[in-house]
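Hello again, I could really use a second opinion on something today. I've dropped the whole record in just underneath, so have a look.
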Amino acid sequence: MESLLTKILHGILNFLRDSHPGVCYATCAAIGKMSIDFSPILQKKFDQEVIPGLLMVMDDSNGRVQDEATEAVITFFKSYPKRIATKYLTRITAKLEAFGWIAAREKIFRIIGPIQRREPQSAIWRSPNIDKI
């Protein structure tokens, strides 16, 4: 199955841009599931396509779609290689800050918790707004 992963993932990623919220939601759920099933291969080979796609969907006007994209990011980073995490921390932090601190507090903790446990000196703790959490 791993040999088909490139073809499957590229096909799935196209649906992140679909206009129907149900399609985007299902796509994010599929990516989250694949992040578990194909870890760490998925994280090592496809981070440059998956993370930007999920960050884009986190801007969706549908709250359920935003939440599922955030869940997929959380799942993706549960077993990530260190080099991948450090590459995206600034972008993820900026995205979470854009949500507003009150609304995003739980999501912030769910994403940065595993990162902090693996990398106590990570860039996320240097955010000028981290003290507001």
In short: The mean pLDDT is 82. Helices lie at 5-13, 21-37, 41-57, 63-77, 82-99, 101-118. The chain has one domain: 2-132. Residues 2-132 form a domain with the Serine Threonine Protein Phosphatase 5, Tetratricopeptide repeat fold (CATH 1.25.40).
